[in-house]
Write a structure and sequence with these properties.
Helices cover 19% and strands 28% of the residues. It is of the alpha/beta class. The protein has an 8-stranded mixed β-sheet with strand order 1-4-3-2-5-6-7-8, with helices on both faces. The model is unreliable at 1-7 (pLDDT under 50).
């Protein structure tokens, strides 16, 4: 297990969580996968960051017809809404991960709140990358306060997001706008 300190603040403008539908999330994952077709080097595998990145990463790996793997990274110790990032990300690499990666490794999470999780997992995987390998990051959502954008993302939001694979929130929620395009840095 590795731990990476990283400090930044998420933005919660109205404090009303967004609630995307499962279809919206899966459609965004498909569009993100389409956006990396033709990447040089080609995507060799997709790694989902548990727990939120698992479902979109599986879909993306299926679409791209490449192996799927999972890693665990966490810095929020509860599922309570509107938490700021701790900056202390704990990464656990599974024994089932390959010893070496080649091509482009597509690292997927449900949201880039500060970029800390992507940075920590990238650092944890660095010693397993072949010389010509690259890591590309993709997220369904990016919080407006995220100082380090993923390489690709679908929506930018200014509030908490509750995903369809999480417990539904109590109280008022706001829908996610229609997806217009995949964003890239």
């Amino acid at each position: 297990m590795t731990s990476t300190p990283y400090a930044a603040s998420r933005v919660f403008a109205q404090r009303i969580p967004f609630t995307p539908t499962r279809y919206q999330c899966f459609d965004a994952a498909r569009l993100l996968a389409e956006s990396v077709v033709g990447t040089d080097p080609a995507v060799g595998c997709v790694i989902g960051i548990a727990s939120g990145g698992i479902e979109p990463a599986r879909l993306m790996a299926d679409y791209l017809k490449v192996p799927f793997h999972a890693v665990t990274a966490r810095h929020n110790m509860s599922d309570a809404l509107f938490q700021q990032a701790t900056g202390d990300v704990r990464v656990l690499l599974s024994d089932t991960l390959p010893a070496r990666f080649s091509g482009t490794v597509l690292l997927v999470d449900d949201i880039a709140g500060t970029g800390a999780t992507f940075a920590a997992v990238t650092n944890a995987l660095a010693s397993r990358l072949d010389a010509a390998a690259a890591i590309m990051t993709a997220a369904l959502f990016r919080n407006r306060g995220c100082p380090q954008n993923p390489d690709r993302w679908a929506w930018t939001v200014n509030d908490w997001v509750v995903f369809p694979w999480e417990n539904p929130p109590q109280g008022q929620t706001q829908p996610v706008p229609a997806l217009r395009r995949v964003n890239s840095r």
